[in-house]
UniProtKB/TrEMBL annotation:
Pfam families per the UniProt record, alphabetical: Thioredox_DsbH
Entry-linked CDD domains: SSP411
An example Gene Ontology biological process: carbohydrate metabolic process
Domain Spermatogenesis-associated protein 20-like TRX, first and last residues per copy: 8-171
Source species: Candidatus Thiomargarita nelsonii
Name of the featured protein: Thioredoxin
């Protein structure tokens, strides 16, 4: 038995999740040669446990089983135990989540518990959370351990056969057939599927547990735009589904009404009680979609308030002094889920006077029965009919009081892909609400990545000791984020960095034979499978974002290699897309740009004049419009590196070379490969934009 002050090999890691288990009596190892060789030498199966620091049920299983000396002794005797942070190693998580689904025939989750053969590392059994005693229809974890170990040593032939079948299944999932012609059929299919899954009473898609599915909401907003532009009746029902869902989430308990920001998901249909962890990768897209929804419907002040409060929370609590954004906040504090966020009427009444308490209690349900384990979690029961200064004052008082509580643990790991999602969210909010502080926060994160995680022309996935090579999501999300930030403001060097990222995407991740992109680079560690997925999961599809961003960069620069890579990705994804279009809504962004090439506006001229022109270009919600304001004199510094990758005789790469500055300002408006003559007046530009404007919803 290990003394509680002793440690296992995880003590040398930097991941907060791995360090949480460094003093377990379990002899945990990180994934690596030491553990894998030991399992092979001793012919012991591997117990692979995958989780993350903010995961509530990961904590539960740790307390119940991994901190139990008897259970730990059993694990140490029968297995080589490997602990993986799924945020550092999404490659392993993707592979073994898929394997779990194939073996168990149901979706996985966290903690993920898989038992692997020691030589080939294929799983032969697995599950998620296992209880210490028989309950929930599951046997005790100790019973699982003994039976799995016995099965491994007595059924080698059966396990070997299953390994062969699993290998075929994992590889077979990436085969696809290209369409004769890319068409708009999946748009209507996705719209119909979203309509079928929509909860007309409480909003959202599907039942509890209810996830935000932000990419679905984005799809509905885009579908509304497409239907209107094609001269048909705008899809008002789809628009309602999107806006109603955004409204119910902003009013629900999934949103932190005192501090801002969203929790991971709702455990009920009402959006009332969340799983209390707060993840960076959720809040970046949340920030972007609420900003864009307000841009479309400016009368909905709730959307603006939600976006601003979320951005303020991120800057206040999620940004490191060095500029990068932290990963998450735990669901638990002081060993209890949600303790930081809950209240009792008596406590609130002691903090608010007789003028403030009644409207606050009425608004947030403190005058109703308890909704969370005998306590009250704030959920809006009655919407504001008008601005109520009393509510805002009460919220501020309670927020200040809550700051004195023990905060949930913060995972201060900085992940490139998740930072990219927040850079895009901040850039979108900063552009729409004209907030320089949001744009500065985005710039600081981008600078941190470029200065710290961009090494010898390659990205790292995370900071800290791990120094893991970056994945598809890191490159694709960051490329997409830079294009969003460039539309908010032009800055020397960012476009050059975007081109460098695009080049590595093609060089390291592209499947040149079948199309699309692998999740891991060509020089990555060899694993039992090399994932290449096209569907969305807890984050947008890396393939979808890669195709979307490369397509847009291809149109901006006139670079056919990028456009061809985007097209081949769509073709590779087509069969899985057509099977379930609503599960591939990010990929549909790339399909949309392929069928309806985006309008690209290049503004050149003096900075102050460009600000006015840029504001006109970006006033309305126009997802198929890209607008870049490049000040006179920028190009020589901006594209020194880019010219080495995309050689051109001129200072600017690609088609940008022809967009020369003339006078105080000039606009070049292009659609696909066709461009208008230079536009020399703001009135003329406004007229062009007005002719293509969306129906007025404001």
């Amino acid at each position: 038995m290990r003394d509680k002050f002793m440690s296992n090999p995880l003590i040398n890691e930097t991941s907060p999740y791995l360090l949480q288990h460094a003093h377990n009596p379990v002899q945990w190892y990180p994934w690596g040669e030491q553990a894998l060789s030991l399992a092979k030498e001793q012919n012991k199966p591997i117990l692979l446990s995958i989780g993350y620091s903010a995961c509530h049920w990961c904590h539960v299983m740790a307390h119940e089983s991994f901190e139990n000396p008897d259970t730990a002794a059993l694990m140490n005797d029968l297995f080589v135990n490997i602990k993986v942070d799924r945020e550092e190693r999404p490659d392993l998580d993707k592979i073994y989540q898929m394997a779990h689904q194939l073996i168990i025939q149901r979706a996985g989750g966290w903690p993920l518990t898989m038992f692997l053969s020691p030589k080939e590392h294929y799983p032969f059994f697995g599950g998620t959370y296992f209880p210490p005693q028989p309950r929930y229809g599951m046997p005790a974890f100790s019973e699982i351990l003994t039976k799995v170990a016995a099965f491994y040593h007595s059924h080698q032939a059966q396990i070997n056969e299953q390994n062969r079948s699993l290998a075929q299944a994992l590889q077979g999932g990436y085969e696809s057939s290209a369409p004769e012609q890319i068409n708009a059929a999946p748009f209507n299919q996705a719209r119909a599927q979203l309509g079928q899954n929509f909860d007309h009473t409480h909003a959202g898609f599907g039942g509890a547990p209810k996830f935000p599915h932000i990419s679905n909401i984005e799809r509905l907003l885009h579908h509304y735009v497409i239907s209107a532009r094609q001269g048909k009746q705008p899809d008002e029902e789809g628009l309602h589904m999107a806006l109603f869902t955004l409204k119910k989430m902003a009013l629900g308990g999934i949103y932190d009404h005192l501090g801002g920001g969203f929790c991971r998901y709702s455990v009920d249909d009402l959006w009332m009680i969340p799983h209390f962890e707060k993840m960076l990768y959720d809040n970046g897209p949340f920030l972007g979609i609420y900003s864009e929804a307000w841009q479309l419907i400016e009368t909905e002040s709730l959307f603006k308030r939600t976006a601003l409060e979320t951005a303020d929370w991120v800057i206040r609590e999620m940004q490191s002094p060095e500029g990068g954004f932290y990963s998450s906040f735990d669901a638990d504090s002081e060993g209890e889920e949600g303790k930081f966020y809950i209240w009792t009427p008596a406590e609130v009444k002691s903090l608010l006077d007789e003028e403030l308490y009644p409207p606050f209690a009425h608004h947030f349900g403190l005058d109703k029965p308890a909704n969370f384990e005998g306590n009250w979690h704030l959920h809006v029961y009655h919407e504001r009919e008008e601005m109520d200064a009393r509510l805002d004052k009460a919220r501020d008082i309670l927020f200040q009081h809550r700051e004195g509580r023990v905060h949930p643990g913060r995972d201060e790991k900085i992940l490139t892909s998740w930072n990219a999602l927040m850079i895009k969210g901040m850039a979108t909010a900063g552009r729409i609400f004209v907030r320089e502080d949001y744009l500065k926060a985005a710039e600081q994160s981008l600078d941190f990545i470029r200065n710290t995680l961009w090494v010898d022309g390659r990205l790292l996935a995370t900071n800290g000791k791990a120094h893991l090579n970056a994945y598809l999501d890191d490159y694709a999300f960051l490329l997409d984020a830079i294009l969003s930030l460039l539309q908010a403001r032009w800055r020397d060097g960012d476009m050059a960095f975007a081109i460098e990222l695009a080049e590595v995407l093609l060089e390291e991740f592209a499947d040149t034979a079948q199309g699309g992109f692998y999740f891991t680079g060509h020089n990555h560690e060899t694993l039992i499978s090399r994932p290449k997925s096209f569907s969305d999961d807890s984050v947008p599809s890396g393939n979808g974002i890669a195709a979307h961003a490369l397509g847009r960069l291809g149109h901006i620069l006139g670079e056919t290699r990028y456009l061809e890579a985007a097209e081949k990705t769509i073709q590779a994804a087509w069969s899985s897309l057509m099977q379930m279009a609503s599960g591939h809504t990010t990929m549909l962004l790339a399909v949309e740009d392929y069928l309806f090439p985006p309008q690209t506006i290049i503004l050149r001229g003096e900075p102050e004049t460009l600000k006015k022109w840029q504001a006109v270009c970006q006033k309305n919600y126009a997802p198929q419009r890209l607008s870049f304001a490049i000040p006179t004199g920028s190009e020589a510094k901006v594209f020194a590196r880019a010219r080495k990758l995309l050689p051109r005789k001129d200072d600017l790469p690609g088609m940008l070379a022809n967009r020369k500055a003339e006078g105080a300002a000039v606009a070049y408006v292009c659609s696909g490969y066709q461009c208008s003559a230079p536009i020399m007046s703001l009135d003329e530009l406004t007229k062009v934009l007005f002719e293509q404007a969306m129906p007025d919803n404001k």
